[in-house]
Amino acid sequence: MNDKLNTLTARQKEAYLAIESFIAEKKMPPTVRELGELLGEKTPGAVQGIVNRLADKGVIKKELGVARSIQLVDSNSMYLEVAYVPELKRINKRNLNNLLNIYNLIAYHPVSVDLFGEEVKECFFLDCPDNSLTKSNLQYGDTLLIHRISSYDNFKNKDIVLVFYDNHLLLRYFYKSKDLDKVILKADSNLLNKEEFLKDDVFLIGKLVAKIQRF
To answer: Which of 79, 95, 119 is the last residue of a domain?
Structure first.
């Protein structure tokens, strides 16, 4: 890694150190705007160019179109690869199509890719939204790790899914229906007095990957 750092220009080294310091202090990567402020650079395109060149030289990694996706690369590190997973404030009708907007983010948390697999890069954290699966040991106060999936083809029977229905955010067990226009969503107790839904009436947000339970 030192060899790679030695190939950087002075400006690139300054940016690399700024990213390193920001992550150490804030526990999440900087946005392009924040990095620009640290470097005294007001032109977003110029900052993005520096970031791109750091990625080309193999000292950072980043995902296109994803905020705060910059990760430092250290081949000598004994730490496993991490993904920075966003924690969301809430999910409602207004932000369903833009969950990761900056006003809905609380923080980004480093999560081991080795532990959860590559899918963790497409996940978010959210507080458990309801108590409909308490018998399955899911309840208010738990923090859920949700894999963002919106295609019915990517779900299997008995997956626990996060769905939005009739202005309610719900956890349900997913089952395929014989009617291709419908889906079966089961809770531990049928509070809505309804288990079969038209697909057009339900917004599938994602699948439960893990939970964090506080004691």
So the answer is: 79
